[in-house]
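Q: My labmate handed me this sequence with no annotations at all. I'd like to see what the chain might look like in three dimensions before we decide whether it's worth expressing. Could you predict it?
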Amino acid sequence: MALGAFLAGLLLAETEFSLQVESDIAPYRGLLLGLFFMTVGMSIDPKLLLSNFPVIMGSLGLLIGGKTMLIALVGKLFGISIISAIRVGLLLAPGGEFAFVAFGDAVNQGIMSSQLSSLLFLVVGLSMALTPYLAAGGQFIASRFEQHDVRSLLPVESETDDLQDHIIICGFGRVGQIIAQLLSERLIPFVALDVRSERVALGRALDLPVYFGDAGSREVLHKVGAERACAAAITLDSPGANYRTVWALSKYFPNVKTFVRAHDVDHGLNLEKAGATAVVPETLEPSLQLAAAVLAQTKLPLSEIDATINEFRSRHLSELTELCEASGSSLGYGYSRLVTKPKTQSSDSSNGNQTTEGTTALGI
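A: Here is what I predict for the chain of 364 residues:
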């Protein structure tokens, strides 16, 4: 039953109900977590620990050292810095609660002796007790060797408590940086969040209000004044992170209008269901700009290029809206309602290459 409950939790974590389930069980999580560690502590046999001290300490060192090196290696292969990889390795080095479930089933099935199970139980329990010290060690390594201390990049309420009707930019990548630049030029108040310290450091170097934090966290959103914000531009790299941020803003800060980029149609539909005010297909506008640049080389008049691009944009967004409505979403692709038609062009000049103010050569 314990293993089945564990697997059921893993399956639920991958569904659209995961955030709601997490919110529902939050009041019980602290109580059950405390009960779990009390059970682990009471199950430790001091006599067994003393009688097998060298074996247990050796196994403990092998567990922590092996997992740290393995996780650090995997992290390095995925492109994170060596210091961050070591820090992650130290955080994940202790054994997990799944080990207790696995050991119990192994004993019941005769795969493992009860004495070996007790020894491994001690090793895992001690490794979990060392978690705070391993985390502190990782923080010490990061503060000594990393160029930027993440703690100095965290949002502080005193720095954002004067913001009112501001914009929250969730994700300070390429798209987020462009949005921040446009808002800065128009003197529109904003605050940006990102979980990559190098991006945050870049924004702070430019004297921009960029902070380190998970935009999907209710506490982080509160620290940047989400209850007083008017809108949020969600430009995170991960589709899952985008969905989680939209869900958190919709649930805890319904006053904030959310504008989010979608990876594909299915992702856009899920974002609409999560409560997004408007969804922008991330490949649409770059594709249209590239198509417009190519069409310009065919000697077509700019007015005809604009008309072609705008007609395709309208048709494409209408199809997405119809698809979204057919799926049961009441909003549809909200971006189609936000796209304004370009100003009517004056009559073309003799060479057909003149456009009026308000319409660009790329038709956006």
